[in-house]
Amino acid sequence: xxxxxxxxxxxxxxxxxxxxxxxxxxxxxxxxxxxxxxxxxxxxxxxxxxxxxxxxxxxxxxxxxxxxxxxxxxxxxxxxxxxxxxxxxxxxxxxxxxxxxxxxxxxxxxxxxxxxxxxxxxxxxxxxxxxxxxxxxxxxxxxxxxxxxxxxxxxxxxxxxxxxxxxxxxxxxxxxxxxxxxxxxxxxxxx
Length: 191
Description:
Number of helices: 6
Number of strands: 0
């Protein structure tokens, strides 16, 4: 349906241009105009213009849909990375509160997974920032700041406080991301 509307617009523009040039150039075009009409070149030009316009409209829509999909995927990736960090942080917090010392290999595995999740978050955060998803840069800045704050608190203060600080930041970030995602999907479905 969009293609036929674009073709109709192309035809109307072609006719308007043809009529305007006839009035503007008058006698010069009057000698050429019968040749253009008799050869059938005008319908071909108007048809090509209509096809061009239709392709532009369709391609523009495709690009908008593709961008929306990329934004949604970036939002999902950021949410998954923060969720993984939150789960690992809560495991450490629980172990610390229970005064449970996991085996060294399990502790190393958790630390490795936490570092991987943090790097994954930084990787997808760059993409999310580049795509300009409203509200996400602020959430990411708060999460990234919590890494430094928690490290500082753990170094000079209580480790439990550091875990609780990060757990709170991760929990709030996930709630904000869920709301951003909901609004993003609602805005898209309203179109």
